[in-house]
Every structure is written in C-alpha cells, then in structure tokens.
Amino acid sequence: MCEALGVSRSGYYKWAQEKAKENSYQKRRKALLARIVWLFKDSNNRYGSPKITRLLRREGWEVSERLVGKIMNEHGLRSCVSKKFRVSTTDSNHKHPIAQNVLNQCFRTSAPNKVWVADITYVPCREGKLYLASILDLFTRKVVGWKLADRMTTDLVLAALDRAYKAQKPHKGLIHHSDRGSQYASEEYRARLQQYHMQASMSRKGNCYDNACIESFHSVLKKEFIYCTKFRTKAQAQQEVFEYIELFYNRKRIHSSLGYLSPDRFEALYYKGIS
C-alpha cells in the first residue's frame, strides 16, 4: 500500500500512531465531557469548575481546573449564582438581656455539637413572606436544625432549636451563638437554652463578622438556591427548602473547609475515627 501511494513505511507508521493518539484523545475528551455534565446536573447546576475538578480527581481523572473550566465554558455550563439581595431580619431594639460574646469570632472547634451558630433569613414567596431560622454546627458545617414559617417570631427560632436538640442530643455546655435579635434574647428562648444546658453567646451590636459562619451559609443558600428559584406557594417553598438543606447541602454539597467532603460525610468520618 505504501508503494502504491508513494509513501515511506516510517511515514505511514508515524501517521497511524498520531491518528491513534488523536482518536484516544477524542474518546477521553468525550468521556470527560459526559462526566462533567453529569456532575454539574447532579448538583442542580450549582457546582463550578473548582468543585467539579475535585470530584473528578476523586474518581481518578487526571485533570486541571483550567481544563474543566474551559470545557464547561465551551458547553455553556455555568453555576447558578444570583445577585445579592438583603432584607434585615434582626431586631436588636428591645429590653431583653444580652448575653456575653463568648464565641468572640473563635470559629474553630474540636468536635461536633460543641458550638452552634443561629440566625434568621428572609425567603421571598409569591404567596407571602417566609422566614428561615437555621442552626449550624461549627465543626461539621451541618445544618442541625431549621424551621420555615411566615412570621419571624420566637416560636420560629424555638422550633429550629428543638429540632436541632432532638436530632443531635448534645452534651451539656454547648455554646449557642446568635445575633442580638429579640427572638434569641426573649425569655422563652433563654429558658429553653437553660433547659438544654447550653451557654448563650451573642454578637456585638451591628457586627456581622461575629456570626460569620451562619451568615456565610445563608449567603450560599441565597446565591445558589433561593434567588435562582421562583416560589409560587408556601408549600412549594417548604418542600424545596427541605430538599436543598436535607438532601443536598447536608448530604451531598462538598465544602473546601471540610476537605471537599459533605457535612454528613465529615461527621461520619469523625465518629468513625474515635470509635
């Protein structure tokens, strides 16, 4: 065949090798694209190239974040991040006692259920306003308790606290940190903290950095979920908030601060290590 075509044998073999490499590269690129699309869709379009790169490497792929980002851009795969929108949910103009700032921006702790941080955020809904009270474990970054309701009352934050206590069963002495909102400073809430043998801690007035971890969670919640979703009814909002927190955020969403593990997985590995 080489004689008929007037080419050298070495030229033919070189062409054949390059063709095989090209076919192998195209197959790998096609398989890589398929996996990137799957991981992107599995996160409900929330993961960008850094997290997808981590997941690919965990599966054995040798890829750079730059390549993953390039492929995602070529195919229009962009993580859903919405613009910021803030509604004030803190009423610090009250006469209730203010707890000392025990936490004092010390956001590192040695085990689960030693420090919880709490806050309230606004959730827009066409059927009416909704407010989400959340409690986050500082060690695992897990949402240990939450409650969604149409009124920003003490009952709202009490329900979130009761759920967290029932689910986690923490030992005595847990530090519970919040802002100075009237709901957290109320007599009923302080009594519940005493009942659960928890130590109250509150941020300084007007200092959002004192409660930065729960503020960060609510920021993520808004950017990649709330403001990317149109809640027509309160029932829809309840269902989808449940799915985001319980099925995605706690169980699946990887965190760089946890070594790119989910809160549930990080917690499970901790207890496995001490058993």
Blueprint (SSEs and pairs):
Blueprint: H1 2-5, H2 9-42, H3 49-58, H4 65-74, E1 115-123, E2 130-137, E3 143-149, H5 154-168, E4 175-178, H6 182-185, H7 187-195, E5 199-202, H8 212-224, H9 234-249, H10 263-274
Parallel strand pairs: 1-4, 4-5
Antiparallel strand pairs: 1-2, 2-3
Helix pairs in contact: 3-4
Walk me through what this model shows:
- The chain has ten helices and five strands; from the N terminus they run ααααβββαβααβααα.
- α3 packs across α4.
- The model has no long low-confidence stretch (mean pLDDT 89).
- A five-stranded mixed β-sheet has the order 3-2-1-4-5, sandwiched between helices.
- By secondary structure, the chain is of the alpha/beta class.
- The longest helix is centred in the N-terminal third of the chain and has 34 residues, at 9-42.
- A hairpin with a 6-residue loop joins β1 and β2.
- Involved in the transposition of the insertion sequence.
- This is Transposase.
- It comes from Gordoniibacillus kamchatkensis.
Write a concise synopsis of the structure shown.
With 275 residues, this protein is of the alpha/beta class. It is 46% helix and 12% strand.
Number of strands: 5
Structural class: alpha/beta
Major pleated sheet: 5 strands, mixed
Q: How confident overall, as mean pLDDT?
A: 89
Order of helices and strands: HHHHEEEHEHHEHHH
- State the helical fraction: 40-55%
End-to-end CA span: 70 Å
Total DSSP helices: 10
Beta-strand level of the residues, as a percent range? 5-15%
User: Strand order across the biggest sheet?
Assistant: 3-2-1-4-5
Query: Which residues sit in consecutive blocks of at least 5 with pLDDT less than 50?
Result: none
Name the shape in a single word: elongated
| Gyration radius, in Å | 25 Å
Function: Involved in the transposition of the insertion sequence.
InterPro entries: HTH-like_dom, Integrase_cat-core, RNaseH-like_sf, RNaseH_sf, Transpos_IS3, Transposase_IS3/IS150/IS904
Organism: Gordoniibacillus kamchatkensis
Protein name: Transposase
